[in-house]
Amino acid sequence: MTSLLVTGAAGFIGSHFVRYWADAHPDDNLVALDALTYAGVTANLDAVRDRITFVHGDIGDTPLVSGLLEQHHVDVVVNFAAESHNSLAVLDPGRFFRTNVLGTQALLEAARQVGIGRFHHVSTCEVYGDLALDAKEAFTENSPYRPRTPYNASKAGADHAVRAYHETFGVPISITNCANNYGSHQFPEKVLPLFVTRALDGAQLPVYQSKDNRREWVHAVDHCRAIEAVLERGRVGETYHVGTGDEASVEQLADLVLDELGRGQELKTTVADRPGHDRRYLLDSSRIRQELGWEPTIPFEQGVRDTIRWYADNRAWWEPLRDRSPVTENDWSRS
Ligand SMILES: NC(=O)c1ccc[n+]([C@@H]2O[C@H](COP(=O)([O-])OP(=O)(O)OC[C@H]3O[C@@H](n4cnc5c(N)ncnc54)[C@H](O)[C@@H]3O)[C@@H](O)[C@H]2O)c1
After folding, report:
1. Which residue intervals of the chain are DSSP H helices?
2. Residue with the nearest Cα to atom 28 of ligand 1?
3. For 151-193, what is each residue's pLDDT tens digit?
4. Domain spans of the chain?
5. What is the pLDDT of residues 60-87, one digit of tens each?
6. Atom of ligand 1 at shortest distance to CA of 158?
7. Which residues are in the NAD(P)-binding domain (predicted)?
8. In CATH, which of 3.40.50.720, 3.40.50.300, 3.40.50.2000, 3.30.420.140 is domain 3-182+219-242?
C-alpha cells in the first residue's frame, strides 16, 4: 500500500486525480489537503469521501504538513495546490507568488524534513512564455523559462524551487508541465466552462480580440494518467511534458460550445485581451510517450462535447460557484 498526500485536492485537476487514484488504486491511502480558497469545492470529493481523509489546510503551513506526512506515513506528495487563474493574477499578483512559490517551498521543506519518497510537482506549459502563431517548433523540456505573466512567473518560480530542493537536499522530485486542461468540475471562471455556462443562460461569450490565439488541450483524466505514469515509471529528478498536439483557438472553442448547445453566433462578443495574453503554447511531449508509454486516450472534439454536456447536466454544481470568482473577463475593457 502506498500513502499519498494530494494538495489542491478540492480543485479541478486535483479532484480528478483523487477520484481517478481512488478507483485505480483502491488499496492506497489518500490524504487530500486543500485551503478551500474560492476555487476549492468540497463537493468535488463527494464521490470518494468515505475512501479518503480530507484536511482543510494550507501548503504553506509546514508544521501542519509535516505532521500529516508523519501521521499518515506518506510516501508520495502530489502538489496541485496553486492560485491558477491568469486573469486574477493581473489584479492580485501577490497571492500568486505567496501560494505558488512560497507555499511550494514550505511544502518542500516539510517533505525534506520527513524524508519523503517522492515529491511530484504539477506545473504548466506557460512557464516557457509564448510561441508565434506560425512557429514550427514546440517547447521541449530543455527550453528556457521565459514567463510573461504573474501566474506563469509564479509557476516558474515553483519549478525552480522544486529542482533546487532536489539538487541541494536530494529530495526525490519529479515535475510534469502540462498543456491546458479541460473536463468536468473546472471552476466556471476558466474559458471553456465560462463559455458553456454563459451560452446555457443565453448570455454573451467574451472572446478575446486576439481570437486566433490558441492553446493545446488535454483532458484532465489523461493528465492524471500521465502523472500516474511518472510516479510509477518516471525517473527521479526528471521533467516530463504532457501534451496532445490538439490545438484550438479561443474562437474555435466558442464555436464548438455554440454548436453543441444549438446556440447562434450572435452570442459571441469581442472583448479586449487580458494584459500579457500569450499567443500560443505547444509542448513537445515525446519524452513521456517514448520513455513511459503514455498516450492521450480522449479525442479532443468528443472530449470537449462530452464536457459541454456535463455542464449542461450539472447546473446545480456550477450555479452557486460563478459569483465566487473575484474577477470577470469583461473587466479588461474597463481597466
Ligand atoms: N488548469 C489547467 O489547464 C492547468 C494546466 C497545467 C497545469 N495546471 C496546474 O495544475 C494545478 C491545479 O490546477 P487547477 O486548474 O485544478 O486549479 P484550481 O484553481 O481548480 O485548483 C487549485 C486548488 O488549490 C487550492 N489551493 C490554493 N491555494 C492553496 C494553498 N495555499 N494550500 C492548499 N490548497 C490551496 C484551491 O483551494 C483549489 O482547490 C495547478 O498547480 C496549476 O498550475 C493547470
Report:
1. 12-24, 62-71, 86-91, 93-96, 104-114, 150-169, 191-200, 220-233, 250-261, 286-292, 300-313, 315-318
2. 82
3. 999 999 999 999 999 999 999 999 999 999 999 999 999 999 9
4. 3-182+219-242
5. 999 999 999 999 999 999 999 999 999 8
6. 41
7. 5-307
8. 3.40.50.720
